[in-house]
Amino acid sequence: MTNETASVRMVDRREAIRRVSALLGGMALVSESALLAGCRSEGQAPPPGAEKFTDADIAYLDEIADTILPETKTPGAKAAKVGAFMALMVTDTYEPTNQQVFRDGMKALDAACQAANHVGFMAATPAQRLALLEQVDRDQKAYMDARAAARASQPRAPGGGRPPAETPPHYFRMMKELTLFGYFTSEIGCTQAMRYTERPGRFDPCVPYTPGETTWAGHA
């Protein structure tokens, strides 16, 4: 195994599927970007260009994720190895077009940080990183709203599928979604950011809620 793939294997495919399935009750859907219907065989060659996330890429994604979900009273996204989860999900479940959008977005985000702060994202301060991501988040919201409007105006594809010509999701929307998926289906997310009971108890459709309580984690 090369150094470029070692970090991705820290969260292997079976673990990625388990996390997403636990969150969605077996329907492993990653937003609009990809449908995780199974697990590629370990012996099967990856598609061309799929294995390009290096250790430096994983560290970069960890810092992006940790800016989105930083350490507070509970560990942040980096502690949950969300960067490795993001890289694996992109490599194994995203269509080639969206994989390229994601990777190009990593470069665009770093270039934006250079333009705004004269340093790359990894060298930026936490405040600089947060300000940048807040701006990029506003940009992606406008982009996705315009995409949704254009999508609604197009005729539906045969069989009621998506319109045949549509733009891919914004790269930062993908990053945010994968950060949330990776964190809240990790052991840290389930047992520390949420409340977790190993074995299900009785079914209570309505339970008292005290403001500030964390939600219950799903079961793997």
Secondary structure elements and pairings:
Layout: H1 3-6, H2 13-24, E1 29-30, E2 34-35, H3 55-68, H4 82-93, H5 96-117, H6 126-153, H7 171-184, H8 187-193
Keywords, separated by commas or semicolons:
two-stranded antiparallel ribbon, disordered N terminus, mainly alpha, 8 helices, 220 residues, 2 strands
Written description of the protein model:
By secondary structure, this protein is an all-alpha fold. The chain has one domain. Helices cover 51% and strands 2% of the residues. It is built from eight helices and two strands. Strands 1-2 form a two-stranded antiparallel ribbon. Strand 1 (29-30) and strand 2 (34-35) form a beta hairpin. Mean pLDDT is 76; it is low at 1-10 and 20-44.
Radius of gyration based on Cα positions: 19 Å
* Overall domain count: 1
The chain-level structural class is mainly alpha
Q: How are the strands ordered across the major sheet?
A: 1-2
Total of DSSP H or I helical runs spanning 4+ residues: 8
Range of helix content? 40-55%
Overall geometric form: globular
- List SSEs in N-to-C order: HHEEHHHHHH
Major sheet: 2 strands, antiparallel
- Mean pLDDT across all residues, rounded? 76
| Percent of sequence in beta strands | under 5%
Question: Based on DSSP secondary structure assignment, what is the total number of beta strands?
Answer: 2
Poorly predicted tracts of residues: 1-10, 20-44
**CA-CA gap between termini:** 29 Å
